[in-house]
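Dear colleagues,

As part of the handover before I leave the project, I'm documenting each prediction I ran so the next person doesn't have to rerun anything. This entry is a single chain, and its sequence is reproduced below.
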Amino acid sequence: MTATISALAIGIGVPFTIHVAIRFQEDRVRFDDPGDAVRSTTRFTGGALAGSAFTTMAGFLVLRFSSLPPFQQLGTVVAIAVGCSLVAAVLVLPSLLILWDRWHRRRGDAPAPVERETEPANADGHVDAGTLATPRIDCPNGGVIHRSTVRVTGTTTAS
């Protein structure tokens, strides 16, 4: 039973930290000050995480009405673990992300990847209406991460 509780707690708590970390990276590109990036991250991500955590906790707390004591205990312990994961993701992780950002910048690492759109151009250097463009992220190490595909609705000049 303890292995199940540990796996559930980790499996439910990890997405909270992923959402906060990714949002911080996006906000860090937009803001020069890491404090402003953390405030934006917690302002726009904290409510969604709290809603998700509270509904998950409520779902597990329903197990308190079970007639079997092990299920009652499972529901209580997992609900507490999800609550602790929420607190860690919203209160502890932002501080660690600021330290992580400062450490990387002191080392001289490039800032976080910047997302920009690239469009396939024809021989004239123009993009025809209806062609597909792929937003991409240029990584500091020279790699490229391609995201979802979007439809270009007009003719633009490729840069």
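The chain has two domains: 2-106, 114-157. Residues 2-106 form one domain.

All the best with the project,
I.
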